[in-house]
Amino acid sequence: CMMRKIAVTAAAVLLALALAGAGPAGASAGWTLVPTVNPGRAGADDLSSVACVTQSDCVAVGSYVTKNGTASPALIEHWDGSRWALQRWRHGGALVGVSCASAGFCLAWGWHISSRGALGGSLVLRWDGTAWHKIPAVAAHPSGGYWLSCPAVDACVAVSENAGIPIAESWDGTSWTRLPDPRRDGHTSLGSVSCTSVSACTAVGYAKGAGGAVAERWDGTSWAFQDLASPAAVELVNVSCPDAVTCTAAGYNNGQPAAEQWADGTWTLQTFPRTQVSQIRGLSCASAAYCTAVS
Predict the structure, then answer these.
(1) Out of 93, 174, 212, 267, which could bridge 74 as a Cys pair, Cβ 3.0 to 4.6 Å?
(2) Does residue 106 have a pLDDT over 90?
(3) What angle do CA 66, 71, 77 make, to 5 degrees?
């Protein structure tokens, strides 16, 4: 299996592991802490997802509440290879995911939040290289969740859950179109999708009826299950495919992070260092040898 560099990020710190031959020049093996930026008014904050165009161009998103407990603008941060910096979005919301096709195009998504902290309808923001703008949202419901992947500025795929049924949609730069539904094995809940094109996507999640993690592959026409190597206790919550033949999926197993790699058409378990975090919540692989995760 190919070795990876994995960085685990929290709202307060960046926890990075450099592996020989995989990280930047001069990086030594071992975990290091790198400060991120916390909003000055934040009483509690949380990063949920990260997307990296390159090793020095990443966007992380999440949410925070103010010190007096009120709802706040969504949390958006940018990594330039040396430090994290806040990006502005003045409106309320909780962002749970982000996907970037280039330095000038990202989609971030989540939920509107009322002044009392209640979840509203789905929220999708677009980054144009200068600022974030609101665009039409997917047909997800707050009772479930949803995830987007954008291999191009006019090509995104979303997986979500509505009334307990997994659904999929595609974005052409203007509007969303319903795709054939992903397959179900019992109650299948898909938590993430990664696409190298609109006709090549991998989605991962958990099948409550059958038990254990699931992976599905979209070929532009239909969804098909893939065989995973994970034991039944593993739940996969994120997947990232930097190219058409390689994917990394991550989640948790009995209170510890877990990961699998897809290469040569086969999923295999990855060795993940034991850390103080219990699971990986967001994952982005800029290449087959470099991944960044948030928790």
Answers:
(1) 93
(2) yes
(3) 70
Tally of helices (H runs) and strands (E runs) in the chain: 0, 25
Q: What predicted TM-score, i.e. pTM, was given to this entire model?
A: 0.77
CA-based torsion, 75, 107, 133, 121: positive or negative:
negative
**Residue 257: C-alpha distances to residues 223, 232, 233, 239 (Å):** 27, 14, 12, 13
Estimate to the nearest angstrom the gap between the alpha carbon of 169 and the chain centroid: 17
In the three-class reduction of DSSP (H, G, I as helix; E, B as strand; rest coil), residue 280 is classed as: coil
Through-space distance between the first and last CA atoms of the chain, rounded to whole angstroms: 24
Which DSSP letter does residue 174 get?
Answer: S
Q: What pLDDT, in 10s, does the model give residues 253-266? A: 877 788 888 998 89
Q: pLDDT for 37-95, tens place per residue? A: 777 665 566 788 888 888 889 999 988 776 666 666 788 999 998 888 988 877 778 88
Q: CB of 214 within 8 A of CB of 192? A: no
Structure tokens at 162: 């509505």
**Residue-wise pLDDT tens digits, 190-209:** 889 999 998 999 999 887 75
Q: In terms of Cα–Cα distance, which of 126, 208, 223 is closest to 168?
A: 223
Question: How many residues can be counted in the chain?
Answer: 295
Q: Which residue is it, tokens 């995911």?
A: 97
For 92, phi then psi, to 5°, come to: -70, 160
- How many other C-beta atoms can be found within 10 angstroms of the C-beta atom of residue 257? 22
